[in-house]
Amino acid sequence: MKVEDISKKGNTSEISTILAELHYLHNTLIDLLKDSKYVEIYAKSAPHIKGLMAKSTSNQNIMEHMLIALYGWLILRMQKKDISKETNEAMASFSKTMAYVSLKYKEMKTGLINSNLN
Asked: Domain span at residue 21?
């Protein structure tokens, strides 16, 4: 992080690359592959993501927004803070979405899904 001068804010280039790949995979699963399971899972997250992105002033992609939200939720849980039912529902949907994307990301990286994704 010091080498890339991002010790206070930002992601390393490696993390930025992974986030871009996850976003690309998200779009590919929906638009190109029309992965029905992912479309169904993501549909449950979409309203929460749109609400989250509407409140944000950053230009992060959908995957990054979900990961940041999940990280914040984890911190709140570790601090034993009260978390609303709506937030817990949103985080549960984000968790399911990210779990599926993680599985597909591994498949993409090992060549098990469409070679055009590598």
From this structure: 13-109
